[in-house]
Amino acid sequence: MREAFRNYINGRWTEPKSGNWLDRENPADYADAVCSFPDSSRQDVANAVGAAAEAFESWCFVPAPRRAEVLFRAAEIMAGRKEELARDVTIEMGKVLKEARGDVQEGIDMTYYVAGEGRCMWGQTTPSELPDKFNMSVRQPHGVVAAITPWNFPIAVPCWKLMPALVTGNTVVFKPSPFSPISAYSLVRILEEAGLPPGVMNLAFGGDKAGAALVEDPRVGMVSFTGSLEVGREIGAYCGRNNKRVHLEMGGKNAILVLDDADLDLAVEGAVWSAFGTSGQRCTAASRIIVQSGIAPGFTDQLLSRAQALRLGDGLAATTDVGPVVNMPALEKIGRYMEIGRDEGAAIACGGARALGDGLDKGYFFQPTVFTDVRPAMRIAQEEIFGPVTDIIRCSDLEQAVAINNGVQFGLSSAIYTRDISKAFKAMERMTTGIVYINAGTIGAEVHLPFGGTRGTGNGHREAGQAALDSYSEWKTVYIDYSGRLQKAQMDRPEGDQG
Ligand code: UN1
Questions:
Q1: CA-282 nearest atom, ligand 1
Q2: What span, in angstroms and rounded, lies between the C-alpha atoms of 202 and 169?
Q3: Ligand 1 center to residue 319 CA distance, Å?
C-alpha cells in the first residue's frame, strides 16, 4: 500500500495547501509505487520558512552542547533503525542494500561527529595589542538555512547539511529531492523523536518550484545545495545578487590514474568499485580512467571482464552488484551519451545500452559501460554522465596523466595507483581536485574531513569535518576593553615609539 508523507511545518505534519501531490516509484520496478508526498507551493514553502524564522529566535540561544544532545539522540535512533532506513534507501533510489547501509552509516557518523562539535566549535582567543583588552572570535548562525539535497545519498548528504546547520544554531527548511522522499521523512521524524523543538526543522517536499521559492524567500539567510551544475549555477547567481550565503556542490568528472608500476589487481578493483558502485551515480564516481600505455592492455582486459560480470538487479537481492539508475530521464541521458561517444569516435568496449530481460524490463537498468579510444577533449570525457559509464584514456607518463586529470571543468576527486612514492607525492601535489586518493579509488570520503571540490564542482566551501562549521556559521570578532579609558588600536603606542 502506498504511503503518503506530509510536510513538517512548525512541529506539525501538514498537508500541502496546494492540494497537489507527487509520486515516487521503485526504480527497480516502476510498477511498484512507493509513496506520495506534497508538491509544495510557494505558500507551503513560505509557511515553512516562517516557522523556521520564528523558531530561530529561541534556538540560537540554546547552548550549543544542548543542541548537540538532540543530535546525539538522533544518531542513537538512526543506529537502532539502520536496517529499516537502508531498505528504504534501496527501495526509493535503487542502490544495493550493502551500499544503502553505508549511506545510512555515513549519516550516523556525521551526526555523532557533529554532536561532538557542539562542545568544541573552537574560535580564537588572542592577545590584544592594547593593555586591559581581550580579543576573541566566536561563531554565529546565519538564521534560516535552506537545505536542498539530492537523491543519490538520501541519508548521508542531508545529514552533512542538517546536522552542522542545527548545531551552529540555525533553523532549517529541508527540501529533499523528489526521488528520495522516504529517507527525508524518516530523518525528520527521527529529529522530532530526538526532541528538536517545533519550527527548528521543517520539511517541504516538492520539485524545482518549491526549491526556487525557498531560495528566493528573503528570510532564508543561507542556501546549501547539492545537485546539478545547471541548477547550482542559478542558485549561486541568485544568492550572489542578493548577498545570500550559499554553499554549492555540483558534481565531478573524476579520474583514476593508473601508472605502469601500479598493482594491477588493486587498480582494477578500485576502478570497478569507483566506476560502477551506486551505478556510477556518485559525485565522486570515476568516470575517467587514465592509464599509462604499458599497463593499458592488461588493465583494459581485466576491467572489461569485471564489468561484464557485474550482475544487475533489484538492490534488495543479495546477488545484485549494480542496481538501477534513478529514473527514466537519467536512463535517456545516459543513452544519449552512448551516441555522443560513438559520434566522437570512441568505442564502446562493453555495455552501451539499457539492460532488459531477466526481470529488468520494468526497471531503469543500464549496462555497465566502458568506452575505449577516448581522447581527453571528447564530451564523454568532459561532461558528467552520472551513470555506470567510464572512459579509458591512454597516457604516456605521469605529467600527461595529471594534465588530463586537471583538464576538466570539475574538480572533486581524483586517484592514482602507483608503487613509486615520489610519483604518488608528485601527483598528490599536482592534482587540483578537492580530494585525492593514493592507491584507492575516487570514492569513500570520511565524515570528519573536508568534502568538496575545486573549479565547477562548487563555490569554494566544503562540507563535512570542521570545514562544515565554516559554511553554516559566520565569524563574529569580539573586543572587550576593560581599561576604562578610550584606547585606539594602531594609534596608542608607548611614548617615543611612533613606528
Ligand atoms: C556524493 O556523491 O555526493 O565519498 C557523496 C563518497 C561518499 C559520498 C559521496 N562518501 O563517495
A1: 2
A2: 14
A3: 23
Tell me which of 113, 224, 274, 282 to substitute to probe ligand 1's pocket, judged by most ligand atoms within 8 Å of the beta carbon: 282
DSSP letter at 455?
E
Q: What are phi and psi of 125, to 5 degrees?
A: -120, 140
- 444 touches ligand 1 (CB under 6 Å): yes
Whether 95 contacts 317, CB under 8 Å: no
**CATH code, 121:** 3.40.605.10
Over the stretch 461-482, which tens digit does the pLDDT of each residue have? Answer: 999 999 999 999 999 999 999 9
Contact 11 CB / ligand 1 (< 6 Å)? no
Q: Which domain holds residue 336?
A: 254-438
Give yes or no for a contact between 331 and 364, defined as CB atoms under 8 angstroms apart: yes
Higher pLDDT, 498 or 128: 128
In short, whether 279's Cβ falls inside 6 Å of ligand 1 is: no
Ligand 1 pocket check for 95: Cβ under 6 Å:
no
Same domain, 234 and 260: no
- Going from the Cα of 358 to the center of ligand 1, the distance in angstroms, rounded, reads 30
With a 6 Å cutoff on the Cβ, whether 282 touches ligand 1 is: yes
pTM of the model: 0.96
Q: Which three cell numbers stand for residue 102?
A: 553505508
Cα separation, 161 vs 246, in Å, equals 12
For residue 262, give every residue at least 6 positions away whose Cβ sits within 8 Å of its Cβ, in sequence order, or none.
295, 417, 418, 419
Q: Is residue 129 part of a domain?
A: yes
